[in-house]
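REQUEST
  id: r-88c1
  op: predict_structure
  target: Glutamate--tRNA ligase
  payload:
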Amino acid sequence: MHIRTRFAPSPTGFIHLGNLRSALYPWAFARHNKGDFILRIEDTDVERSTQEAVDVIIEGMSWLGLDLDEGPIYQMQRIDRYREVVKQMLDSGLAYSCYMSEEELNALRDQQMANKEKPRYNGLWRPEPGKTLPPIPEGVQPVIRFKNPIGGSVIWEDAVKGKIEISNDELDDLVIARPDGTPTYNFCVVVDDLDMKITHVIRGDDHVNNTPRQINIMKALGGMPPVYAHLPTVLNDAGEKMSKRNGAMSVRDYQKAGYLPEAILNYLARLGWSHGDAEVFTKEQFVDWFDLASLGRSPAQHNPEKLLWLNHQYIQNADPAKLAEATKPFAHQLGIDTENGPSFVEVVGLLKDRANTLIEIAEGAKLFYLPAPSHSTEQIAANIPESIVPALKDLILAIQNASATKEAYAAAFKEVLAKHGLKMPALAMPVRYALFATTQTPAIDSVLMVLGRDEALKRLSKVVH
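RESPONSE
  id: r-88c1
  status: 200
  body:
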C-alpha cells in the first residue's frame, strides 16, 4: 500500500500547537513510510474563512519544515466535483431532497427534548417503498440528505483508541448539501479522501463523532474507509482544552518569542507520542522512529517550562553561525548593527549557553555593540576602588603581552591576581565595569576575546591614571 496522509485544517482562526500536532503526526507517518503528505484547506465555511488564517497555516508548517507532496488544495475550488457526486447520489437513491423547514426542524427537536429523546431528524422526507411523501411546498429550496443505513453498526479499529462501534440508530440522515447547493463538511471530507486516495486519517479526537457518518457515506460511494487514528486532546497548563480563548499561543507568537522550529517540532512530537525515554531528538530521528502504535491514549498536557527547557537545549547545541543568522532579525529589532563591531557569530557563540530564547541572545549581544561607556570621575571612584588600580595597570600590561587567545587572557588574570593577592571577583568586577559600565557579563576571558584586544585595552586605559 502506498501511504497517503493529509492535514485538513479549517482557516477560521489562528493555529496553535494542538492544531499543528495534527499536521506533524500525519507528516511523520508519510515520511516514515515513503508516502505522500497532502495539505487540504477546508474553506467551505466562507463567512469565517480568511486568507490570513491560510497564510499562517502555510507559514507555520513551512517554518517547522513540514514539506508537502501535494497542496494546498482548497475545497472551494472543488465545488463542481461535490455537486457532481451529490447528483450521482440523488440519481442512485443514496440521497434525497428534504423540504423540512428550519422552523419545523426546531419544533421537532424541542418536542424530542421535552420527551427526553435524542434530538434528530425523523426521516419525514426519506423515500421508502410504499411510503407516501408529503406534498412539496411551493418556493422552498430543499436540503439534500444522505440515506443513512438503518440497523446494524459502524465498526472500526481506531489506531489510537482501539475498536469503536456506533449503532446506526444513533445516526440520522445527514444533510450533505444546503438549500443553496453548497456541500457540508462531513460530505466534502469523504469525497476528498476518496479522490485523494487517503489511506490514513490522523486527526484530533473531536472528530470521532464524525467518523461513523463519514464511513457510511464512503461505503455508499463504493470506497474503502482509511485507517483512522484519533489523537487525544491537548490540554493547556491549567488542564483545559487548548484554545485561543484559554490563552494558547499561535505559531507566529512562538516564532516572535525567539523559539527555534527544531525545538517546537521536538516538543510537539512528545505531546502524545514517545520513543522509550528519548526527550531530545532530531527531526530525522523522529521520522525514523515514528509509528502509530506509539501514540498515547491519554490527553497530553502543554508544559511551557518544558518547551522553554527544550529551546535552551537546542540553542546550547546549535551551530553558532546558523544560530547567529536566526538571531539577527531579533538583534536588528533592538537596533544592533551586527555588521559593525565584534563578529556577531562569536558574540552569539559566547551567549548561547545561558540563553533560553533568541530574544535573550539578542538582548545579551547589545553590550558588545553599544558605544564605549563614558565614565565620570565619580562613577569610576564608586565602581573601581583606588586599591585595585595597580592591579588594573598590571592587567593592561599582561593583556598587551599575551597572545590573543582565551587561555592566554585567563593566564594573564591569574598572574595579576597572584601578584596582588586578590580573588577573581575583586578584579573582574572593575574590569567588567570599565568595559561595559555593568558588572553582569559572561566569563571575562571570553568577553576579552569577543570584544577584541585593542578595544578592550582602550576601554581599560580610560579608567586608570
